[in-house]
Amino acid sequence: MSRRLRRFSIEAIAVLASIVLFWVPLYFVVLTALKSPQEASLMNLDWPSKIQLWDNIKEVVAVRDYMLVRAFFNSTVLTVLSILVLVVVCSMAAFVMQRRKDKASPWISFLVLAGLIIPPAIVPTIWVLNEIHLFKTMTGLILVEVALGFPFCVMLYRGFMGAIPREIDEAAVVDGYGGYRLFFTIIFPLLQPVTATIIVTSSVNIFNDFTNPLYFFPGAKNATVQLTLYNFTSQFVSQWNLLFTNILLITIPPLLLFLFFNKKIVAGMTAGSVKG
Predict the structure, then answer these.
(1) Where, by residue number, does the polypeptide cross the bilayer (predicted)?
(2) By C-alpha distance, which of 229, 233, 241 is closest to 52?
(3) In Å, how far from its chain's centre is CA 58?
(4) Domain ranges (residues) in the chain
(5) What is the topology classification, in CATH, of domain 68-229+251-275?
């Protein structure tokens, strides 16, 4: 088998796998969201006899006193504030880790890397949040999301900063720039590619997070978009048409984000890996 034929075979397998793993489930979600309750209960790939998407959307939005609208607001606030903190804190931490070389640096790098490996502990985290009076609060949940995303974002920033010459820092210090002014005026604007990558990938992860809001931000008024899926499932009755309509509505924002910023994600990831 020639190299070109082998390469084509691998690409064909990859495309086929993406179709099976992504597009078929997405098609099933859209198809079920178009159906009536009776047809949706059959859970098949048949085209509906009558499209009821708009009726399903109105019912989903109105259920439980417009809980989905509150959930979108909560998820948006959570995502925006978490991303702001992640970008500022992680970029500053990565800058210090990249530039500073002393005996503590390897240990700090090890602890950051360990954050990618060690799984989060739910019960101790709840105890800590409760002791500092941040359990069941948006602030506490934001801190949890920032802590979980910190290692990945720091490693991306640190790898990208490896290509920024130290001479820029030295020249700025000679010109009288202090630490914060040096970073935010000169270094931070150079981080736009990797910042765009972190904003998009972390936004999708936080917006789609199910576990952390469930444990650390309980309550009907505190629901995020993923928790609204509970509205249409129970032990006895499952409203499949409404459930999949809800899934479709909360899938659209992250999907559009990926479609519009796909090139920026790839560029930022590639630049960070090569330059690090």
Answers:
(1) 12-34, 71-95, 107-129, 141-161, 182-207, 240-261
(2) 241
(3) 27
(4) 68-229+251-275
(5) MetI-like fold (1.10.3720)
